[in-house]
Design a protein that fits this description.
mainly alpha, 15 helices, MetI-like fold, single chain, 306 residues
Length: 306
């Protein structure tokens, strides 16, 4: 009697995608465990101790409990003599102000780069220069150029003058806080442009992954450009948008001045315990900001709630 061949158990598509994602992230997970897990553990340990050099050499610990965390927000000040609570508030405001501006500006640039027009190749080269040569190199190069002074001079004079603000307040009926926000954003347009290189590339890849047949069907059905943009383009790049938002948030926090304060406390002031406590608080702040952004994206249905 012949045995029936064993049937292969098929893996569900959703499970397969999760496995593929885990395999893709596995190098990062291994790198984190090998290179970052031990320093992270030591940082948390140092934050609850007073760390000094032992008389016989090495590190000497003296457990202080929550003292470093309490001193951080009651006694210690930043290098600019500001309370650290104020530093955290200012940094969070700057991050959550720059996050939507960079995301929307990157999407705008990606749409321009994806459009068909003469010289599109040159425009893409300009967008991708920060990625190929390094963002800091391009930023330093352009900041030392005459063009930056011209751009900032024009935008600063045009958008921050009292007459322009008066016109906006009179004819747009916008609140004063909104007008100040808009004029400030336009005055910093050059800095905004230098922070959008990677995000523009990601959005451009997402736009090019949309099947042209979707647009053809929409045009046959009589949809206009506005409807095509909101009904096809935006939903099709929802996952890409989530990635860009998270990447931008982490990138903004990475360039925060709080990281410099951690270094100053730990090494310049030789307060390793306080510096470690500041590092832990900063890490918690970043995770809290990610949670806020994640909750907002779920509420706005950018992320699938299933």
């Amino acid at each position: 009697m012949m045995k029936k061949p064993l049937k292969r158990r098929k893996i569900k598509y959703a499970v397969s995608r999760k496995i593929n994602g885990l395999v893709f992230a596995l190098p990062w997970l291994l790198g984190f465990i090998i290179f970052f897990l031990a320093p992270l553990k030591d940082t948390i340990l140092y934050s609850f101790n007073s760390v000094d050099v032992a008389p016989s050499g090495g590190i000497q610990f003296s457990f202080t409990g929550m003292k470093n965390y309490i001193d951080l927000f009651t006694i210690e000040v930043s290098t600019k003599s500001q309370p650290l609570t104020r530093v955290f508030v200012d940094e969070n405001i700057a991050v959550f102000t720059g996050l939507p501006l960079i995301t929307l500006f990157s999407l705008f640039l990606a749409i321009l780069a994806n459009a068909k027009f003469p010289g599109r190749g040159l425009v893409r080269v300009i967008f991708f220069l920060p990625i190929v040569l390094g963002l800091q190199l391009i930023t330093d190069w352009t900041e030392n150029s005459v063009g930056r002074g011209m751009i900032e001079g024009v935008t600063g004079t045009l958008h921050t003058s009292s007459s322009t603000m008066r016109l906006l307040l009179t004819y747009t009926f916008l609140p004063r806080s909104v007008v100040l926000f808009l004029t400030g954003a336009m005055a910093n347009i050059f800095t905004l442009f230098t922070r959008t290189g990677v995000q523009t590339m990601i959005f451009l890849a997402g736009l090019q992954s949309i099947s042209p047949s979707h647009y053809e069907v929409a045009k046959i059905e009589g949809a206009n450009a506005y409807e095509i943009f909101w009904k096809i383009t935006i939903p099709s790049i929802a996952d890409v948008t989530v990635f860009v938002i998270i990447y931008t948030l982490i990138d903004l926090f990475r360039g925060s001045s709080i990281a410099e304060e951690v270094y100053n406390f730990a090494f310049a002031k030789s307060k390793i315990g306080v510096g470690s406590a500041l590092s832990v608080v900063y890490m918690v702040n970043v995770f809290a900001a990610l949670g806020v952004v994640w909750a907002f994206m779920r509420g706005a249905k950018i992320i699938d709630n299933k």
